From TrEMBL, chain A:
This is Amidophosphoribosyltransferase. Keywords: Glutamine amidotransferase, Transferase. Pfam families: GATase_6. It comes from Neptunicoccus cionae. It comes from the Bacteria. One of its GO terms (molecular function) is transferase activity. Residues 2-299 form the Glutamine amidotransferase type-2 domain. InterPro entries: GATase_2_dom, Ntn_hydrolases_N. The gene is purF. Gene3D superfamilies: Glutamine Phosphoribosylpyrophosphate, subunit 1, domain 1.
From TrEMBL, chain B:
It comes from the Bacteria. This is Protein glxC. GO terms for molecular function: oxidoreductase activity. The lineage of its organism: Bacteria, Pseudomonadati, Pseudomonadota, Alphaproteobacteria, Rhodobacterales.
From TrEMBL, chain C:
PANTHER family: ARCHAEAL-TYPE GLUTAMATE SYNTHASE [NADPH]. Belongs to the glutamate synthase family. Residues 83-335, 359-407 form the Glutamate synthase domain. It holds the Pfam family Glu_synthase. This is Glutamate synthase large subunit-like protein. One of its GO terms (molecular function) is glutamate synthase activity. Transmembrane segments: none annotated. It comes from the Bacteria.
Amino acid sequence: MCGIVGLFLKDKSLEPQLGSLLAGMLVTMTDRGPDSAGIAIYSNETKDQSKIVVQSDTPKTDFDGLEVALANASGVTVGMEVSSTHAVLSVPNGAIDAVRTAIAAVNPALRIMSRGDTLEIYKEVGLPKDVASRFAIDVMSGSHGIGHTRMATESAVTTMGAHPFNTGNDQCLVHNGSLSNHNSLRRKLRREGIHIETENDTEVGAAYLTWRMQNGATLGEALESSLTDLDGFFTFVVGTKDGFGVVRDPIACKPAVMAETEQYVAFGSEYRALVDLPGIETARVWEPEPATVYFWSHSEQPIKEEAA
Amino acid sequence: MQTLDMADIELREMNATLHAQAENTNQTAWEIKNPRGAHAIACGLDAPIEVTVKGSTGYYCGGMNKQATINIKGSAGPGVAENMMSGTVVIEGDASQYAGATGHGGLLVIKGNASSRCGISMKGIDIVVHGNIGHMSAFMAQSGNLVVCGDAGEALGDSLYEARLFVRGSVKSLGTDCVEKEMRPEHLEILADLLERSGADAKPEEFKRYGSARELYTFKIDNAY
Amino acid sequence: MTDTTNGAPRTTPIQSATFSDPINAEIRRAAATGIYDIRGGGAKRKLPHFDDLLFLGASISRYPLEGYREKCDTSVTLGTRFAKNPIKLDTPITIAGMSFGALSGAAKEALGRGATLAGTSTTTGDGGMTSEERGHSNKLVYQYLPSRYGMNPDDLRRADAIEIVVGQGAKPGGGGMLLGQKISDRVAEMRNLPKGIDQRSACRHPDWTGPDDLEIKILELREITGWKVPIYIKVGGARPYFDTTLAVKAGADVVVLDGMQGGTAATQDVFIEHVGQPILACIREAVRALQDLGMHREVQLVVSGGIRTGADVAKAMALGADAVAIGTAALIALGDNDPKWEAEYNALGTTAGAYDDWHEGRDPAGITTQDPELMQRFDPIEGGRRLNNYLRVMTLEAQTIARACGKSHLHNLEPEDLCAVTMEAAAMAKIPLAGTDWYPGKPNTSF
């Protein structure tokens, strides 16, 4: 159970403010989930480099010389920037898998938060304001991002139980609700060879989308089939390299508010999350329909807003 | 006009101030500034005062209202005017889910659209929505009137009891046990009165009436699941 | 034994344990009617229960208290976390929520009278607060249910505490039910329903879902009542660790936990017998949740579901509860299922002690009915006197046990004062099997 926020910028001039806007939105949702918080930011695309964000509970020792060890193990150049318990590793395009293998070999205790060309996920146990300041989210720039603050229902309060969940290169997901068939779905997906780390229901939702897309579905198709295959209550917000999407279960009990202006599309679990956005007074504000996939993209495609 | 600015005072102080207004207060007009989506604004009022909220509200604004008139100059979050007993709540913008849920009396006017579950379990309240309403509206609605000048979403009036539903536009689908019913003169009269009191620009003759088929009123094999 | 009447030896007819008489009868009933069985009461199957636990008592290593001279306090205060006016009770045995509608107005009055005489609280139910009940209850807990029948802010402000009902032990995940026979004019008016219909109420609250919304609902209720009265959250015995944790996170003052033996006025038999956990399995998990949050005794835990005696009360408290609630037992104290009505029970096709068709409104004892003639049989003053007596006996029994364990207050009973006589109870209550220091699942032990 949780609070979700999302912000997709259409106006590039707002990009330097993405982190501060998103962190501000998330902090207003603190009451909905005091256990852990996380933010995914899409930013700083560099032509030849991809990123892997790793987390450690003992960053001082774990991150010391990590980039050298990984370079030796993988045979590619690895850059590293440490931010509190997280380290952003920069690796050559196409070397993500090689470096992931190297991470598992060099230090299996390191946890992979995200991977992709532009995606960086930061998440920890604690309140949104503490998580935001720990990683200096408010000075980050980017094109879009999503955030989540968690009230754990059944699974453990841990870093890995925090959202967003990374679902594939440059893909992530946050969730509000409670899935009711995640245990059997987890077993099925594990049999299909999908790696699922925790007993968290949302991670299963994320893994499900990954599995569908590995089998050729587009993100939109995967979201639409999730309406059939996932049982229970959910509002998902997903991020991709180019855009972000929203889908609610057919019962649609968990709250969701969206706002759109010339400058941005925003999502909040409550209207409170949106009140500090520029021009919110005149924005188009609405609630997403049940069982309907919404998607916005920076690429040339038109807005996809079709009923499942 | 008394002003309560939520930038300066806490919710508790604001509500306590409004709760302290008795039947015979002289201070009948109140303005609440900077609501910024806060929850439980002006809930539990029980005096004939007029409260104007200058902005959008969070959950349960005007909850369990008695006597008071509450004007929301923005949009309202989930459960606006839930379990209202009497008085009036008017929303200039849209209302989120569960608007007027379980309301026993009074008038709720939504000038924009209402989201899902509008009038769920309503027990005597009158609700007039100038725009559209979302899915599962009037679920298990017991009594009162729900007037929709626009369209209704899926499963309107599912498991309905004796509430009257009037819709001018299209209905995406009717819920179990909800059927279209004959519009009789007394219904046109009720509609005319509600449309006028809510400032809606619509004619009673343009509406269709929906109500309970009363098939779920007894456990039978045919409707057990 | 072998039957040889026809010459060759024959086997004796053997009834199937799987296809027993009651099961076969139910198959025939279902085949004939096409509708599931609806009844009142709680689970009737045999379940591990408080009877499977025993107190150790004091001897040489522990010293008992003198029964009639040395004090053993029974008072409890509920709602100390946020409420300005917590509820102070003389005995930790409270009366659980039962609706006007399910019960007659006079029966509700009797519950109020008896609870007040005994210095404890009673609770409204799905159907609103009646004037009899408020008038005769010194401490009245107002239930806030998914149906919101009869819900109004005046009664909310008149209540001494508010109990947000998420679920009940007889049917975690299910809604209420009141059949047409009991929807009298007065019940219909209080619930805004047509008279005589079969009423089904919602299983989820109409205007919130989940703990994040619940936190906001609690805020609204506190704002309306000026943060004065405690807010309880009642859950059925489903996932007590998580449910208790989330109730506390959402801001509850008190958690009410109802095991599957808890009664109901009317629900599907399949629900009563097959959904939920026995209360014995729920208490330690709820207490563990409170302890993990550092909230044990800060947020009080009230448990219910099959509490019958002072021994049950003492055992529930030793497992970590702050108070208990009784429903079915209170109805029996009032005179429900009394053998003096045996002939009438027989006429209804049942027998005293087994009568559970409370939904039909034909209760010979005049308690679970809205029938004017049957209601006449029940005297609320006498009922109140009987309930008070019963509450006092249970309190004395619990005190007797507590003194024997050397406690000057009931709430000083501990799990270590208990042993278990069955493996099942040992496992569920995490109490060592008698004569051992072990229970199934005890950490760092192997079987």
